[in-house]
Design goal:
Elements lengths: L2 H8 L10 E3 L6 E5 L2 E10 L6 H18 L3 E11 L6 H17 L3 E9 L4 E10 L16 E4 L5 H9 L5 H12 L3 H7 L6 E4 L4 H13 L2 E5 L9 H6 L5 H10 L3 E3 L5 H7 L8 E5 L1 H13 L5 E7 L6 E4 L4
Parallel strand pairs: 4-5, 9-13, 10-13
Antiparallel strand pairs: 1-2, 2-3, 3-6, 4-6, 7-11, 7-12, 8-11, 9-12
Helix pairs in contact: 2-3, 2-6, 4-5, 7-9
Amino acid sequence: MRSSDLTQVLRNIPIPQDDKLLAGLGEDALGYKWQNEIMVQSVVLITPIVDDPYQFGAIAAANALSDLYAKGADSIFGLNIIGFPSSSLPLHYLEEIIKGGVEKIGEAGAYIAGGHTIDDTSPKYGLAVTGKIPAGEKFIQKNGACPGDAIVITKPIGNGIYTTAIDQKTANREQQEIVVAQMMQLNKEASLAMRKVNVHACTDITGFGLLGHLFEIADKSQISIELDLKKVPYLNDVFSLLKSGATSEGMFNNLFTYKNNVRYTTTVTPEEEWLLHDPQTSGGLLIVLPQDEAKKLQLLLSNAGVKSHVIGKVIVKSDFSVITKNSII
């Protein structure tokens, strides 16, 4: 669902009035003051994006946990949410999905405490995840970006193009292995690193694509973002896969939703624009922080084995949420 559609649906839904509720609608996860700590919760459900059920379960778990990591929280436990076509798929397929989720949550230092399963026409798997932020640390929202801040990304974009190619049976074995490894990578180390510096805003890159999530930060912080396309990291084969037809409905939904909020100062190809709107699953973090903190963060990330790139900066609010310079290729 496009974010504009969701806003329309929720326009008449009352906003909870609770001083302990730090954030809810419009954030990656809710934050709730509980005693001296902050409880953080989110729920995410996805359909299969790879053929292997174990990998699907692990990716879904990593994807759900990213909402906690983007807010600066440690994970505690998760609850499975499963839709399964028991009449058309063997139960060992379901077992492998759950096993993948359990082991990925375990890698995060948490556990799955239960859940709920329904009969469905196609497989779906996700989790309601709960974490906490220790006393003295902050719940990192999307609305704190300030002019002059740097923008750091922790994973290359384009995994939606790869998974579309997997679905179309056009991705080779190496491409499948590359994208699965990236999606199964937890954002835990990136989250731990960013908590050691002065972060102003953060979100994880998922279904709205890079530009959609930059728009969220710009809109909530009432600023604009200058994006250097030359510095945006992407998976190596995205353009060859795009030219072979690996485009998705979600990609074009994002393009339709956010295109009027972006100004390109140089000409970009259709494929470059599609990449910027590519919906991600278990994408990286977008971390916004003062320029003089960015090098410190990148060093911390590098020491933790996380590759990162400074892809732009925050500027004073203008008529466009995102203004690009240069081209990707």
